[in-house]
Amino acid sequence: MAEEKGADVKVIDPAELSQAMANIAERSQRIVADFVARQAAEPGPQNFDPLNIGNAFMEMTAKMMSDPAKLVEANLTLWNDYLSLWQNTARRLMGEHSEPVAKPEPADRRFKDEMWEENEVFDFIKQSYLLSARYMHGVVHGVEGLDEHTAQKVDFYTRQFVDAMAPSNFVLTNPEVLRATVESRGENLLKGLNNLLDDLERGKGNLAIKMTDYDAFKVGENIAVTPGKVVYQNDLMQLLQFNPTTETVVDRPLLIVPPWINKYYILDLRPKNSFIKWAVDQGHTVFVISWVNPDEHLAAKDFGDYMHEGPLAAIKAIEQATGHKEVNAVGYCLGGTLTVCTLAYMAAKGLPGIASATLFTTMTDFSEPGELGIFIDEEQLVSLEAKVSEHGYLDGRDMAMTFNMLRANDLIWSFVVNNYLLGKDPFPFDLLYWNSDSTRMPAAMHSFYLRKMYQQNLLTQPGGIQLDGVDIDLGKIKTPIYMLSAREDHIAPWKSTYALTQNSGGPVKFVLAASGHIAGVVNPPAANKYCYWTNNKKVKNPDTWLNGTTQVEGSWWPDWHAWASKGTKPVPARTPGDGKLAIVEDGPGAYVKERAV
């Protein structure tokens, strides 16, 4: 684009526009050809509804039509709401004030532009959409006779459709996009189209939305930078030991078991919000498992392999490194589920090694798994297992898209508007870089986890699952546990995580943090943000527990440190390489640097 001399208004250079359109056409043709070729090469018949959405909506429609009176009532309500909206809009056009018929939620950032309020036309478009959305949600919620899983699936995908059809997602009905289009003479749309093509090229025909500036971050240089060494490794993990920053340390080492759905450095993004650095600064000898990003060669690795080659191998290695036989273990999300299974396994075998366990947002009872349960039924699991068996692993992008759909407006549509309609580059954000640094899941492990735990909920049953031939019984766990859950967690709902307080055979301190799955955990004291709730009484019902809590302002990290330090004594600080383990390489190690995309 060229600028007209002496003016701020941009004019279109025909030669530049022609060249840009030719490049776009050439790139588009190549992307489509590659995509079609790959689709044609996929073995077996193509399933165009692997999530079995069609059957769910057909069942919902049949139930809905069996009671037409409710549908008529809903339609009349919608018609009356629209009449009120038309009347109010007419009053506004004549200069009168009128209260809105429908308002967005205060946290809904789609309608933050002032034109949604000030301009009568855009206000009408906004309220019309909100009324239609309310109508659709009301209709599907009001259908009786559906089983709970089908009802949840219909509600979830109705919300996906409603979110996709928001007027903010389209050029002609988004005032901010229209304004940018006029001011730049359409340059925003041309830049947005190039952004779209870049994302399609990176996804090899599948849309891989760019959420941050990937070139702004490099693991080991400006994220995951707490100094340490890799002191042990096997096929599934590298074990990092971090350099001490205090003269003395707690005698019991700290072992962190992160989830292998994502990478460990969510706990070490930047020095100011790194749980790992903070724990080191409090005098803990910190070790963390850095899981490998598996490929087809590790397809047969199952949950038991992750236990043996993960925490059990790490405990033995830590004894060699420090001379201490027991650790304080910390498990996060899926890593927490593995930690609980390891505790039960060690209890059954009479093995020492874990003096205390801390669990971050950890599910053990999957009877109410939240919206993730929508993706767990026989039809979907069969389809997923067939797909996973082709390569021996679940592609990390598939898992990432599932989690993004749970917050589609924030993690999908906001970037569609920013990147493709406004033509802007996404803002550099370390958390979103981590979120996009997806990891694969071995076929055997993934199938076991989804079927035995999510679908059948066997972990809550004594002997319901076996690991290495050992019955897993949570009631045999006597190890003290500190449970940290998050009140707004949409991945591990806190009322579901609470079940372990009743199923474990040992003492459990349950703490509830404000915010969600990530922010509720990564909440350093220096930020003085959020709060948490505690209640020392052991009660069966989570709501009863919450009603009796004490609210504490700020981070829960100091509370945990005081709990984890009980019964310990100071010893001279330990430096990686001082013990019987030789240094393999500098941290953060090779495993965490391998990108799946």
From TrEMBL:
Pfam name, any one: Abhydrolase_1
Domain Poly-beta-hydroxybutyrate polymerase N-terminal: 108-279
Gene Ontology molecular function, alphabetical: acyltransferase activity
Compartments where located: Cytoplasm
One GO BP annotation of this record: poly-hydroxybutyrate biosynthetic process
InterPro entries: AB_hydrolase_1 (IPR000073), AB_hydrolase_fold (IPR029058), PHA/PHB_synthase (IPR051321), PHA_synth_I (IPR010963), PhaC_N (IPR010941)
Record's keyword terms, sorted: Acyltransferase, Cytoplasm, Transferase
Stated name of the protein: Polyhydroxyalkanoate polymerase
Organism: Magnetospirillum gryphiswaldense
